[in-house]
Amino acid sequence: RLNSSAGAILSRCDGVRTLTDIVTDLERTYSVAGLAGDVTAFVALALDKHWLELRE
Q1: CA distance 38 to 27
Q2: CA separation (Å) from 47 to 3, 8, 14, 18, 56?
Q3: Which end of the chain is more exposed for a tag (fewer CB within 10 A), N or C?
Q4: Are 15 and 55 in contact (CB under 8 A)?
Q5: What is the pTM of this model?
Q6: What DSSP state is assigned to residue 15?
């Protein structure tokens, strides 16, 4: 079971948005700056766990 932060990140991983787009959207939605490191770390974990896959 994922927490709400993880869900917020994964729900934005739609194959269209870049990582920068996702970070910007989250920072605006939650009125918090400096999320890039946390979002990047979670996406790396999600890729490692095969919750996400990269497509070219």
Answers
A1: 12
A2: 17, 16, 14, 15, 15
A3: C
A4: yes
A5: 0.89
A6: S
